[in-house]
Design brief:
Elements lengths: L1 H9 L3 E2 H8 L3 H13 L4 E3 L6 E4 L12 H17 L8 H10 L3 H11 L2 E3 L5 H5 L6 H13 L1 E8 L5 E14 L2 E8 L4 E6 L3 E10 L9 H5 L6
Parallel strand pairs: 4-6
Antiparallel strand pairs: 1-3, 2-3, 5-6, 5-9, 6-7, 7-8
Helix pairs in contact: 2-3, 4-5
C-alpha cells in the first residue's frame, strides 16, 4: 500500500488494470487495497468507468515522509557529504532538513549517527585521469560494503588493481573517503596485515563474513592515503 501511495502521487494517471499488471495481482486486489487506503484517510480519487484512472492528491503527505532508521541514516549522511563538498546549488534548505532528521532520533541513535559521520572523509576532487576510468560498483558490492561499514564487519572481497591483477582479500572497512566522484574504503587488509586504501569501483565482489572488528583511529591510515588508489 505504501508503494501504491507513492506511485499514485508521482504518476499523472494510473488505472486499476495497469496497477494490477505491474504488481502481479488481480484487479480485485488493487481495488480492495485502494478502498482500504481511503478508509485510512488517503485522498484517492477515481474516474468513473471500467478504464477510469485513479490518483492521489499531489499535495497530500508533505511533511509526512516515514523513513526507516537505515533510510534516515543514509539520507542524513548524504546531506552531510553534500554540505562538506560545499556546492552552493540547491542546498539552501539542507541544514533545516538535517535538523528535522536529527530531531527524530533518540539520543542513542544520534550518537550512533555521529560516529558514522565521523568515519566518512571528504578529500580533494579526483584528477581527470582517475575520473576517466571510474565505473559504478555492482549493486551487491555496494550493499555488502554499506552493511560491513555500518556494522564494523569484515568483508571478503575480490579486488582488481590498476594493472589488472586480481586478488582475493579479507578487509575491515574502517573509513570511507570521497574524492569526488570516486569513493575509497580505508581498510585493514588481512592479506598484507596493514592498512590499505581500496577504490570501491575496483571491488569486483564482496560478501560479509560475520566477523566483527574494532575501529582503528584515523591516524593508522595516514600512510595508506598517500598511496592514492593503489592496494598492491
Amino acid at each position: 500500500m505504501d508503494l501504491l501511495a507513492v506511485q499514485l502521487k508521482q504518476e499523472e494517471r494510473c488505472t486499476i488494470k495497469g496497477l494490477a499488471r505491474q504488481h502481479g495481482v488481480s484487479e480485485r486486489t488493487i481495488a480492495r487495497d485502494l478502498s482500504l487506503m481511503r478508509d485510512r484517510g488517503l485522498p484517492i480519487d477515481a474516474d468513473r468507468g471500467r478504464g477510469g484512472g485513479v490518483r492521489l492528491d499531489p499535495h497530500w503527505g508533505v511533511g509526512r515522509v516515514n523513513l526507516s532508521y537505515p533510510e534516515a541514516v543514509d539520507l542524513l549522511i548524504s546531506i552531510e557529504v553534500a554540505e562538506k563538498m560545499g556546492s552552493p546549488m540547491f542546498l539552501a534548505n539542507l541544514g533545516s532538513v538535517r535538523r528535522h532528521l536529527v530531531a527524530s532520533f533518540s539520543p542513542r541513535k544520534r550518537a550512533e549517527v555521529n560516529r558514522l559521520k565521523s568515519r566518512i572523509l571528504i578529500g580533494v576532487t579526483a584528477s581527470t585521469y582517475v575520473q576517466a576510468g571510474v565505473t559504478s560498483p555492482p549493486k551487491r558490492v555496494v550493499q555488502a560494503l554499506h552493511q560491513g561499514f555500518i556494522d564494523l564487519e569484515t568483508l571478503a572481497i575480490r579486488y582488481a588493481r590498476e594493472d589488472g591483477e586480481i586478488s582475493d582479500r579479507e578487509i575491515e572497512p574502517h573509513y570511507l573517503m570521497l574524492k569526488y566522484p570516486v569513493w575509497y574504503v580505508l581498510a585493514f587488509d588481512h592479506l598484507r596485515a596493514e592498512p590499505r586504501t581500496f577504490r570501491c569501483d575496483r571491488i569486483l565482489s564482496a560478501s560479509r563474513t560475520g566477523t566483527r572488528f574494532r575501529l582503528l583511529p584515523k591516524r593508522e591510515f595516514r600512510k595508506s592515503l598517500h598511496a592514492d588508489d593503489l592496494a598492491p
